[in-house]
Design brief:
2 domains; Jelly Rolls; 22 strands; about 240 residues; 7-stranded antiparallel beta sheet; mainly beta
C-alpha cells in the first residue's frame, strides 16, 4: 500500500475577490512538482464564488470535468447549447472531448456558491463533447457510499474513464470497507467535513488522502463526517 497525504493547510490558494479557490493539485499560479496529479485525477479545486460573479466563457478539450455544488446554485452555459442551473445535491459532468467552451456563474445575487471542480484525464481522446447532470437525495448517502459518477452505472453520471466517484455522510463511529472496482486503480478521499481514520491515517476537514496498491480500504468516522471518494486509474496509458 502507498499513501500520499495532502493536508488542508498545504493546498494552493488563490483569492481574486470574486473567487476564493483552494487547490489540492497544481493549478493556475500554484505549482508543486509533487502535487501535479494522483493517477488520472488532475484537479480538485474547492471554490467559493461571490454573489453574481463567475467564470466567463473559456475553452477545454480532452478532460472530464465534474462539478459538485456544496451550497448555492451554479449557472452553466456551453457551446453545445446547454443552459442549466446546478444545485446542491446535483452532480454535473462535462466531457470536453474534441473541444467545448463554457461559462459558470453564481446564479444568485445575494449569496455565494461553493462547489468542487474536479478534473479527470479521459480514457478516450477527442470524443464528441457531452454534458450530463443528475440530482442525488442526501438521505441515500447516510452511512453508505453513494456512487454518483461511473462508466457503468445508469443511476450515476457517465464518465469517459474507469473512474467511480462516491459521496458519503457518516455518523460518528460508523465504519465501512470500500472494495475497489478495478485492479490497479487507487482511491483519493477528500474530507468535506469531520474526521476519519483511513488506512491508518487520521484525516480531517478538507484534507485529501491518496491510497494505491490496495484492493480494499477501511474507513471509520471519528466524528460525524462527509467525504468524496474518487476511485481513479493510476496508470496514464
Amino acid at each position: 500500500m502507498k499513501t500520499v497525504l495532502h493536508l488542508a493547510a498545504t493546498r494552493g490558494h488563490a483569492n481574486f475577490g470574486w473567487l476564493d479557490s483552494y487547490h489540492s493539485f497544481s493549478f493556475g499560479h500554484y505549482y508543486d512538482p509533487e502535487r501535479v496529479h494522483f493517477g488520472a485525477l488532475r484537479v480538485l479545486n474547492d471554490d467559493t464564488v461571490s454573489a453574481g460573479m463567475g467564470f466567463g466563457k473559456h475553452p477545454h478539450d480532452n478532460m472530464e470535468i465534474v462539478s459538485i455544488p456544496l451550497s448555492g446554485d451554479l449557472h452553466h452555459k456551453d457551446s453545445t447549447g446547454r443552459d442549466e442551473i446546478i444545485r446542491q445535491h446535483d452532480v454535473q459532468i462535462m466531457s470536453a472531448g474534441s473541444g467545448i467552451a463554457h461559462s459558470e456563474y453564481n446564479a444568485n445575487k445575494d449569496k455565494p456558491v461553493k462547489f468542487l471542480q474536479i478534473w479527470v484525464m479521459p480514457k478516450a481522446q477527442n470524443i464528441e463533447p457531452r454534458y450530463e447532470q443528475k440530482s442525488f437525495k442526501p438521505e441515500n448517502r447516510v452511512n453508505q457510499l453513494l456512487n454518483v459518477v461511473a462508466p457503468d452505472n445508469k443511476d450515476a453520471v457517465w464518465i469517459n474513464q474507469d473512474a467511480w466517484f462516491s459521496l458519503g455522510n457518516f455518523t460518528k463511529d460508523f465504519s465501512t470497507t470500500y472494495q475497489l472496482k478495478k485492479s490497479g486503480n487507487g482511491v483519493y478521499i477528500f474530507v468535506l467535513d469531520g474526521s476519519l481514520e483511513v488506512a491508518g491515517q487520521t484525516i480531517n476537514t478538507r484534507d485529501g488522502l491518496g491510497i494505491s496498491e490496495i484492493e480494499t480500504i477501511d474507513i471509520k468516522a471519528s466524528t460525524d463526517a462527509q467525504i468524496v471518494l474518487i476511485e481513479i486509474p493510476m496508470s496514464l496509458n
